[in-house]
Amino acid sequence: MAIILGIESSCDETSAAICINGEIRSNVIANQLVHQHYGGVVPELASRAHQQNIIPTIQEAISNAKISKNEVDAVAFTRGPGLLGSLLVGTSFAKAFALAKNIPLIEVNHMQAHILAHFIDDPKPAFPFLCLTVSGGHTQIVLVKDYFDMEIVGETLDDAAGEAFDKTAKILGLPYPGGPLIDKYAQEGNPLAFTFPEPQIPGLNYSFSGLKTSILYFLKEQTKQNPHFVEHHLTDICASVQHRIITILLGKLKRAAQEYAIKDIAIAGGVSANSGLRKALQELADSQDWKVYIPKFEYCTDNAAMIAMAGYHKFLKQDFVGQDIAPLARMSF
Questions:
Q1: Of 7, 25, 246, 294, which has the most beta carbons under 10 Å away?
Q2: Would you tell me how many other CB atoms lie within 10 Å of the CB of residue 158?
Q3: Are 80 and 331 in contact (CB under 8 A)?
């Protein structure tokens, strides 16, 4: 019997989960609405909200799993990457809990955990597989050879795909978080209404800064000619922007699958919840004879279930850390 408490606090969601013998029994997420007033995550406010949320969130996760805190065998926590102030809250609580209960402490890489979310439910991908990991802070193509043997074969050279979604939403005057709203409006628009350039980046790497700039200049020029342009064409703008981001993402993914001769393809991270991306990936998979793996929505965004699952597989290896461990804002595989 192995009962793992997972704690996630890398950005603006406080989350706790219980994993029992590789099965997620509870997954509780506390969102922070305060950031909506500022159009983005404010790090200092995020860390304060984590301090308020972490104890009730963990208590709820333990209660929902129908266990007591004395039954927990190890604590897994997000060490990084993420906002340092937010990571400090989760790390400090995990260290204190493990010390008080005299149980092992397990560090988890947030980006690896997103990939390991695919092992929460069936069907599970077989090794090796490729995973496109897309979020507000990261865009990576990862060759996954084993649970903790992962190689980044392509990544963004500047901005992440999720940031391109959010910045576009901000330019359009949509409230934070704007990415899901672009997805919503895009479903009603014409993806070919407006054309945006595709970055010419060699290899498997990405770049989204140029795309963001071209969207900004396009909207400035159009609104100069017609002040009501955005209002009249919102759905078509969202559909066209989303279409370009998706074609950029999947174009490199297709190339990676061909280069590595792999047909098991997964997506992970917050942007993998985008309905347009999911649909386009499935259509590409049908044409390429791929097996596609997409986590449930609740396991795409930041959550502790993926941390607990990663912690469980580290627990099996007895891969523990000491009380001198510190969070890392930047953390590689």
A1: 7
A2: 15
A3: yes
Quote the pLDDT of residue 38: 66
Region 214-218: what's the mean pLDDT? 96
CB of 16 closer than 8 Å to CB of 60: yes
The closest of 104, 93, 97 to 15, measured between CA atoms, is: 93
143: left (phi over 0), alpha (psi -120 to 50) or beta: beta
125: which DSSP letter?
A: P
109 phi/psi in degrees, rounded to 5: -80, 125
Q: What is the mean pLDDT of the chain?
A: 95
In the structure, what pLDDT confidence band is assigned to residue 34 with cuts at 50, 70 and 90? low
Q: What angle do CA 227, 231, 233 make, to 5 degrees?
A: 105
Q: Average pLDDT for residues 72-96, to the nearest whole number?
A: 97
Q: Domains in the chain, please, with CATH? A: 3-115+300-316 (3.30.420.40), 125-294 (3.30.420.40)
Backbone angles phi, psi at 91, to 5 degrees: -65, -45
Whether pLDDT at 272 is above 70: yes
Tens digits of residue pLDDT in 274-292: 999 999 999 999 999 999 9
Peptide bond just before 177 cis, omega within 30 deg: yes
Rounded Cα gap, residues 265 and 290, in angstroms: 7
Q: Are 73 and 4 in contact (CB under 8 A)?
A: yes
pLDDT of residue 81: 95
Instruction: State yes or no: cis peptide before 197, omega within 30 of 0.
Output: no
Token readout for 229 is 């342009």
| Section 186-203 average pLDDT | 95
Distance, in Å, from the CA atom of 230 to the CA atom of 218, rounded to the nearest integer, reads 11
Structure tokens at 57: 């969130």
